[in-house]
Predict the 3D structure of the following.
Amino acid sequence: MDHLDKLEAQSVYIFREAYREFKNLVMLWSIGKDSTVLLWLARKAFFGHVPMPMLHIDTHYKIPEMIEYRDKLAREWQLNILYGENTAALDRKETYPDGTCDRITCCRKLKSEALKNTLSGQWPRYRFDHRLGRYLPDTNTEQYTGVIVGVRADEEGSRSKERYFSPRDKENDWDVGDQPPELWNQFKTDFAPGTHVRIHPLLDWTELNIWEYIDREDIPLVSLYFDQGQGRRYRSLGCWPCTSPVVSQARTIKEIIAELREGKYANIAERSGREQDKEDGGGLETLRREGYM
């Protein structure tokens, strides 16, 4: 068993533990490479089926190809997929692209607040109807308290403080200093009623591991990760006003792996193209304490 096999086995175990322990479970899908690997692992854990709904928080500022990819894969893999949004903020143009707030405030409104209220069922959710081929208002307003997320500890400073099973309070707020120890693969899964728990099956994976696994498993990805002839590609995907491509001529997965192992991005942070990270002093802990992904 090589290192990727061990990471895969650990992630599959975390998935199955979460499914066994938590009733109201949902999995976040940002459409990026990490959460798509997460989706792939879920299908492995449950023999080709994803038994929990998937949730995408739509800021309406994703690169259009990302949304097209989301719906294409939802149809092909018959995913039970939902999306939520902060309709009020969008209608009032309380966003960074509209020039009414800074990037961090925009993230708080379009991501943190949208996620919190979508999980609680207080704001509308929209579910993909495979029969009609479009999204319809979801009639199920149950609260989701177990949330599976594609967070990696190496991705950004605050994420390294997470646990595999990371509790939040009833408002989804994260007390960084009050996290249960996880020693010798012993995980705490019994929490007080009303506790929100984030579950992180990819916590010990690195960016390089993710790409090596994508290569091994031949996982389909949005083409934005690859150079299309302009000498640039996206290394990390988010909203288009706050995510910049990097200079790279990598057109294949193997070329990206080479860049990460010993090439130009071997020692450069993955989210260096995310402008909101820079705006918050290089980290997102402020937002993550309030429920950000």
Notes: The beta strands are 25-28, 54-57, 81-84, 126-129, 134-137, 146-148, 165-168, 196-199, 232-233, 246-247. The mean pLDDT is 88.
